[in-house]
Amino acid sequence: MRRLAYTPGIIVFVVVLLLGDKAHAVPPFAMQTGQPCTACHIGAFGPQLTPLGRAFKIGGYTQTGGQGWQSHFPLAAMFLGSFTNTGQSQPDPAAVHFGRNNNFAADQISLFLAGRVTDYAGGFVQGTYSGIDGSFKLDNTDLRLTTPLDLGDTDLRLGLSVNNGPTVQDPYNSTYAWIFPFASSALTVTPTAQPLLAGGLIGNSIGTTVYGWYDRSLYLEAGLYNTYGPSLLSATGQAYGPGSTANPAPYVRVAYEWNWSGQSAHVGGLFLHSNFNPAVGPFSSDGSFGHDSFTDYAIDAGYQFLGNRTYVVTTDAILVHEDQNLRGTFGMGGAARTGHSLNQARASLSFFYKDTYGLTLGIENTWGTPDPVLYAPAPVTGSANGKPNSNAFIVEADWIPFGKQDSWAAPWVNLKLGLQYTLYTRFNGGTRNYDGFGRNAGGNNTLYAFAWLIF
C-alpha cells in the first residue's frame, strides 16, 4: 500500500501518546493552559483563533499553566443540533428518516482527545457520529512533534504534523478546514464545483508536514499527502473525493503575520498538487484510463481588531485558482475534454460584542470553464448550461451565553446558538432553471438554525 511510507511516523507518535510520562494527562485546552476560552478564540467559542490561539496550535498544543486534576483531563465532547429550511423542497429527502424540507437533526456528536503529551508533543483528535446518516468517522486530526530554538534576539519553532487533510493543521481561519461558515446544514444541496483545497483530501488522506515559525511572524510549511487505502477508508468512515492519489501530493504553505496594539493581520499563499485515479462511485478506478491532475494556487489574508475585547472585528479571505487535467475522467466518458480551470473566492467579515453577540457576513463565488458532460443536467445537483459558476451570500447571527471566563460552569459548558441564512444568486451555472429540470437558484436558499454545545 502507498500509505506505508507514513506509518512509522504515526506509530512513533501513538507510542509516545500511550507510553509518555504524561500520556494519561492530555487535558482540554482551557484547563491545560489556565486561560479562558476567550484568550484563544474569537467570540469565546471558535474556531476562529486569536494570536495566542495560533501560537498554541503552532506550539503543538503543549502550553501549560492550569492547576489541579482538571488540567490533566484529556477528553471533551460536542453536540450540534439544527433545523433546516430551504426555499424549495427537494424532490427526494436528503437522507433516510428525513423529509423533503423543514428538518430537525442531531447533526453530529463528537468526542475529542486533545492537548499536551510532553513538552515536545501534543495533538488534537476528533471522532464524530453523524445523526444524518448514522455513520461514525475519524474527523479532524492533528498530531504534532515540536521544539523551540533560541536564536538570541528572536526565536524559531520547528515542528512536524501528522494530520488527515491539507489545512487541518493550518493556524489561520482563511484556509478551508476552518473557514466560515463554521457550521452548515448537511440536509441541503450545495454547489457541485469545488477546488481540491476546499476538501477533496480532507478526512480521507494522511499527510506529514514539517514547519518553521520564525520570530512569531514568518510561517513556512511543506509536506506530502496520500489518500487512505480501501480498508482504512472504511475503518475511518470516510470516502474518496476526486479519487485515490496515484503518488504523494505535495503541499506548501507560507504566511507572514503582524501583531500590534490589539490588532493582528496576515497574508499568505498555498500550493497543492495531486494526481488521482478517478473515483467511480464510492470506489477508485485503477488508472488505466489515465490520471486526473489538480493543481491549486491560493492567496489568503486576514485581519483582527481585538482591542480590549469589548468590540472585536475580524475579516478573512482566500482566492484559489485550480488547473485541471482530467485525462482519466475524460477516458471514462465523464468529461467532454481534459483541460479545465476552476476559481473560487471566499471572504467573511465578523463583528462580536463582549464575546457574546456576533454577526458574520460571508460571500462565496465560484467560476470556471464549462463542460456539458462534467457538469451535466440533473435534478437539483446538475447544470443546464454545463457551467460550474455559483455565487452565495451568507449572513449569520450568534449568541454565546456560555463560554466566557465568568460563565456558569466555565470552561466546561460552552454554548453557541446561531441563525444562518444562505442566499444563492447563481447555482451550478444558472439563476432560473439552472439544473434543466425547473429548479431555480433561489430554491436552494437555506435557513439554518443551530445549537452548538461543547463540554
Overall pLDDT level: 89
> How many individual helices?
6
H and E order: HHHHEEEEEEEHEEEEEEHEEEEE
What is the annotated CATH architecture?
A: Beta Barrel
- The CATH topology comes to Porin
Termini gap: 39 Å
CATH superfamily: Porin
Structural class: mainly beta
The tally of domains stands at 1
* Shape summary: globular
The poorly predicted ranges are 1-27
Highest-level CATH class: Mainly Beta
Main sheet: strand order = 1-2-3-4-5-6-7-9-10-12-13-14-15-16-17-18
Largest sheet: 16 strands, antiparallel, barrel
Rg over CA atoms = 22 Å
Helical fraction: under 10%
The amount of beta strand, in percent, is: over 45%
What's the quick description here?
This protein is 9% helix and 46% strand. The protein is mostly beta strands.
